[in-house]
Amino acid sequence: MTKKDIQRLFFVINSVSGSNTNNWEAIITDYFTQTPHIVELFSLSKNTSIQQIKDKILTFKPNQVIAVGGDGTVKFVAECLMGSKIVLGILPAGSANGLARELGISEDHKTALSIITDGKNQEIHTTTVNQQLCIHLSDIGLNAYLMKRFEQKGGRGMWGYFLASLKVFLQNSPMQLEMHIDNKQVMKSAFMVVIANATMYGTGAVINPIGKLDDDLFEVVIIKKRSLLEVFKMVFTHEKYDEDKTEIFHTNQLTIKSRKKVHFQIDGEYLGKVKEVIAEINPKSLVIRIPN
What we know:
27% of the residues lie in helices and 37% in strands. By secondary structure, it is of the alpha+beta class. The chain folds into two domains: 3-118, Rossmann fold (3-Layer(aba) Sandwich); 132-283, Tumour Suppressor Smad4 (Sandwich). The longest helix is centred in the middle third of the chain and has 15 residues, at 157-171. The protein starts with 7 loop residues before the first strand and ends with a strand.
């Protein structure tokens, strides 16, 4: 290994993420003890700000900043790297690791750490949704409401998610929405609308089978009608959707207005109720470490 191959790796650790009890500081330190890579660790607290992380990055000058946690930790670290060419790495350690799963990053820590050292870099787009960064998936309606109900409860799994989805799906009435997609007005009645950079949720439910993180578009997935079969397809079989019940648009900008306030989430973080959602693409805005 030449001096050029030696990496400076800054790990941002959310030690309370997920339900596991791993000592991530020890795991990371042990893994890199016999390597020439230069490693620095930082443990997040409730009061850690984005500026604190940016200051650490400025001082340490890393090649990669690695988020050790779930989707919320990944989003927080990504916000620190926007506008730079510093690579974002992921060591999955949360109860929801949707983006890691999307990218094929293993939850086995040795395999994930080998990607940090030996993987490749990919430039991806992100979106801004209501002035907040979204890397993965944002939505209004059914799934956001589910997140509110199950906040801070891990280990639901695909079957638990499916059963909970059915209950919420059958109890809730559709949203009445005015949407502007590529400056075209679209009026819809819908149970759920997803702003989708990627394809699947952390549960494995595939909501956007045609999504790509490295193009210049995101998808708008509209669940128009109650259908147990459509939910089953998303969670288990991943078959083609019925276009009468599930509709997909491609765009780089979107505005949604709802008659009533609706539940809203970004990248697994429930953000309350809103009457308006505005989303736009950020092309080639983040470099991320992925498997070869």
